[in-house]
Design goal:
Strand order of the largest sheet: 1-2
Shape: extended
Order of helices and strands: HHHHHHHHEEHH
Number of helices: 10
Strand content: 5-15%
Distance between the termini: 33 Å
Structural class: mainly alpha
Helix content: 40-55%
Radius of gyration: 23 Å
Length: 209
């Protein structure tokens, strides 16, 4: 345990503590309530409703002075090298997948990407590069599943459930590859005195921002 603490590996520390204390995670009891699922769906989507406030006559004839375009901070796109993902980078990201994480709505699990990295790397490399060429992300990569996780043992209202979105593991890998390219471009433009976010933020957290 001392070596695990010194290595700053909290996952191994927690695993060792569970072995020492013989801790067993209690099996959750799923609630088969269709009405609860419908209520949560309406509760989570309450901000996506269209604005029902009618437009007034003055709103329809309101004109605003056009704002001049901002001066770009980066050179023109023609001078920027085109982003092209290579198979070695895709294979590296696939092999670093954490097998205990859940899969997204497409059913592709991290364990599958890690175990079949040699077979899947060429296929997904073509898909990623094609997506970059067309500037379009496949619809199957943008879907997510919302899992309501209780915030506390006793549920008293819908707000006691925390919505957790399970996204595509393939899309997360794609985002990490693009993130590495963006860091190389935006690095010189970052203010060293900027402190709103931690500079040593992990790669997973940076992807989720």
């Amino acid at each position: 345990m001392k070596n695990k603490f010194s290595a700053n590996d909290p996952a191994s520390v927690w695993s060792g503590m569970k072995q020492l204390t013989n801790y067993r995670t209690p099996t959750p009891n799923p609630v088969g309530n269709q009405q609860l699922a419908d209520d949560l769906n309406v509760f989570y989507c309450r901000f996506e409703r269209p604005n029902l406030t009618p437009h007034t006559h003055s709103d329809l004839h309101f004109t605003q002075t056009p704002t001049p375009p901002a001066t770009p901070l980066l050179p023109p796109p023609a001078t920027q090298p085109a982003l092209k993902i290579c198979e070695d980078d895709v294979s590296r990201v696939f092999r670093k997948q954490k097998t205990r994480k859940a899969s997204g709505p497409d059913g592709v699990s991290p364990a599958c990407l890690r175990s079949c990295a040699n077979q899947l790397t060429p296929i997904f490399t073509q898909i990623f590069n094609r997506s970059l060429e067309q500037c379009e992300v496949p619809c199957c990569f943008k879907c997510s599943i919302i899992i309501p996780v209780p915030k506390k043992p006793k549920i008293t209202g819908l707000n006691d459930y925390r919505p957790v979105a399970l996204t595509s593991v393939v899309m997360n890998s794609f985002e990490r590859l693009v993130l590495a390219h963006l860091k190389n471009i935006t690095g010189p433009f970052l203010d060293p005195l900027q402190f709103a976010y931690r500079a040593n933020r992990s790669e997973d957290d940076a992807v989720n921002i």
